[in-house]
Amino acid sequence: MARAFKYGDNIDTDVIIPARYLTTSDEAELAQHALEDLDATFATQVKPGDVLFAGANFGCGSSREHAPIALRGSGVAAVVAESFARIFFRNAINRGLPILVCPEAVRATNAGDSVEVDPTAGRIVNVTKDQTFYADPLPDFVTQIVDAGGLIPYVRRRLEGVS
């Protein structure tokens, strides 16, 4: 069962992955430092499939693609937020990190709750509280990009299918 990690509003990309680690794009290396200035235990506590919940304007700040890479590398299966900064939203899609906008789910979820998320359906289930929420699902073509692992793998697959 996935576990919820919960943070507040305006979590910027400098907090998601501090600038001192931008000398690499290695997903595993970045994952070791994800959110360390906000939550020093995150990288050691997060397990594959866990879900990050956040308030408004998640991913604001600089446009670095390292932020969604670090979260995906840490095992985060999806980010559910009240809202996303536009550039983070696009970078998450380009890097294959599922994201959902659902303020109701964020407000109802506490850190440590057991959760299930189906990004394709836009369904978020808080198992601990027996509550189900629905975000607007991403359009089909965006879901295909995320499912492929990001924009580059998606384009590669498309090109291979054409030849």
Write the layout of secondary structure elements.
Layout: E1 2-6, H1 13-16, H2 27-31, H3 42-45, E2 51-54, H4 66-73, E3 78-81, H5 86-94, E4 99-101, H6 103-108, E5 114-118, E6 123-126, E7 131-134, H7 140-147, H8 151-162
Parallel strand pairs: 1-2, 2-3, 3-4
Antiparallel strand pairs: 1-5, 5-6, 6-7
Helix pairs in contact: 7-8
Q: What level of helicity do the residues show?
A: 25-40%
The appropriate CATH architecture is: Alpha-Beta Barrel
Number of helices: 8
CATH topology, by name, is Aconitase, domain 4
Uncertain runs with pLDDT below 50, 5 residues or more?
Answer: none
Strand content: 15-25%
Tell me the number of structural domains. Answer: 1
Strand arrangement across the biggest beta sheet? 4-3-2-1-5-6-7
Give a description of the structure.
This protein has one domain (2-162): Aconitase, domain 4. 34% of the residues lie in helices and 18% in strands. It has 8 helices and 7 strands; from the N terminus they run βαααβαβαβαβββαα. A 7-stranded mixed sheet has the order 4-3-2-1-5-6-7.
